[in-house]
Amino acid sequence: MIVCAKCGERSAGTTRFCPGCGSFLDWSGTDAEQQAQAVPTAQPAPVVESARVAAPVGPSGVVTPDPIGPQQSAEPPTPTSPGPPTPTPPTPATQFGAQQPADARPLRAKAQGAEPRVLAEDDLVCVGCRTRNPVTRKLCMGCGRPLDEPEPVKPPWWKWWRGGDRERKPRKPRRRGTLAAIWRWTRRVFLAILAVLAVLYGIIPGFRGSVNKEITEGRKWVERQFGTQLTPVRPTKVTATAATPGHEAVLVADNAKNTYWAAPTGAAEPVLVFTFAQPVDLRRAIVRVGDPAAFQATHRPAKLHLVYSTGKTFDVPLADTPDPQTVEIGGSAGATEVEIHVVEVHRSLQGLDVALSEIELFEQR
């Protein structure tokens, strides 16, 4: 048990703050047992017997009091030998207004063998140190914090992201008027349409393909109008790993629309080889696939794998259409030869050969 020196409130041995006045008990508290031992027991004062002289007895046998009073002892008091005077410690000089050092406040010794308090269901939990306190306390016995202080509410994540703890600047007053209202509604409608288009682009493949096509066409138009000019480049030599009779490899680069190169599809993939007289930087190609006269009579390339003499590669996907297809290519800077591998084909129900009608290449100057 601990007794507060300020208000006299008694607390358990593990309490650090007084429930009555909130004082720090390590400074202002003492154990009840130590306090009881510190108070000395009052002893009765000794009775000193004075030396008295017997009073005279009268003739009638009655004791007559001495009018002078009791006779004191005739022995003089024993003189005390004077000793050397006790030296007085010198008082240090103090400066006016200077703060004097205060005595160190001793800490209370922790109670040994104090039994822990029995917890109850209605205990108050401190929001600072999470100590359980009885309902009768107003201050936490662990840290001295008021128990009626509400627990701070943690702001949501979106306020952290927006900087909710920072002081916000006052908002400007909203403009009023017809033009301002029209602008606000136009902006809201535009944002709503943009959100709907984004959802459609994500869930409808056909819509996504149309948007990608329009973006590609727009980029090409911008490049033609403001970009560097692309010039056609023709190979000096065209060879192939395989070709059917009458449809040699040179027909794929003769700039004619009624001829084509054809090769059988077997274990090895057909390969075209274009050789240039000087290093080139290819950026675009126009490709026509299949037999121009009978489109469904042969297989059509679905994917071309380009291998440059510099060691770099590039893949070109192709659609199954008889119309010319403009594709963007890259990675060929400094190449003098390019191998065109037919790695995937669109299957035909009639023929066994793969046909490629025309390939036109363009480089950047």
Describe this structure in words.
With 365 residues, this protein is an alpha+beta fold. It has three domains: 1-37 and 110-156, no CATH class; 179-226; 230-364, Sandwich (Jelly Rolls). The chain contains five helices and 15 strands. Strands 6, 8, 10, 13 and 15 form a five-stranded antiparallel β-sheet that branches. A five-stranded antiparallel β-sheet has the order 7-9-14-11-12, with no helix packed on it. β11 and β12 (313-317) form a beta hairpin. α4 packs across α5. The protein is elongated, with a radius of gyration of 55 Å. The chain crosses the membrane at residues 189-207. This is Zinc-ribbon domain-containing protein. Residues 76-92 have a biased composition (Pro residues).
CATH H level, superfamily name of the largest domain: Galactose-binding domain-like
Shape: elongated
Biggest beta sheet attributes: 5 strands, antiparallel
Termini gap: 96 Å
Whole-number radius of gyration?
Answer: 55 Å
Kindly state the number of beta strands.
Answer: 15
Q: What is the helix fraction of residues, given as a range?
A: 10-25%
The arrangement of helices and strands along the chain is: EEHEHEEHHHEEEEEEEEEE
Quick overview of this protein structure:
It comes from Actinokineospora terrae. The chain is α+β, with helices and mostly antiparallel strands and 365 residues long.
